[in-house]
Amino acid sequence: MEKNGLNGMGLWTLLEGFLLLANALAILNEERFLAPKGWGFSEVSTSGGAKTLKGQIIGLIYAAQYLRVPLIVLDAITILVMLISG
Fold first, then answer.
1. What is the Cα–Cα distance from 75 to 77, expressed in whole angstroms?
2. Cβ atoms of 9 and 3 closer than 8 Å
3. Which range is the signal sequence, renumbered to this chain (predicted)?
4. How many degrees, rounded to 5, is the angle at CA 4 between CA 10 and CA 85?
């Protein structure tokens, strides 16, 4: 039986997906991965391209990297809830 028309995908699953995406963005390394592909923060800040889509995505990546400690706390809470709830 379907719940809320989402085929079993509830709010908790959606939040877990966003948490996984935030974790994936937080671990990207600028020197090894982003800068060689032209996605470094210095390119956006020097050229004034913060209004472009590429600049917005780079800003999102850097925001996720800046919030690593809260992400670790959210990961721990998620793991505990999953252990308790089964």
1. 5
2. no
3. 1-24
4. 30
Full DSSP string of 29-46: -IIIIIGGGT--HHHHHH
pTM: 0.72
In angstroms, the CA 80 to CA 4 distance is 26
Measured CA to CA, the distance from residue 31 to residue 16 in angstroms comes to: 28
Residue 59 contacts by C-beta under 8 Å, 6 or more apart in sequence?
Answer: 44, 50
**Token representation of residue 13:** 């699953």
Residue-wise pLDDT tens digits, 37-86: 878 777 766 666 667 888 888 888 888 888 889 999 999 999 999 899 87
Q: Which amino acid is at 52?
A: T
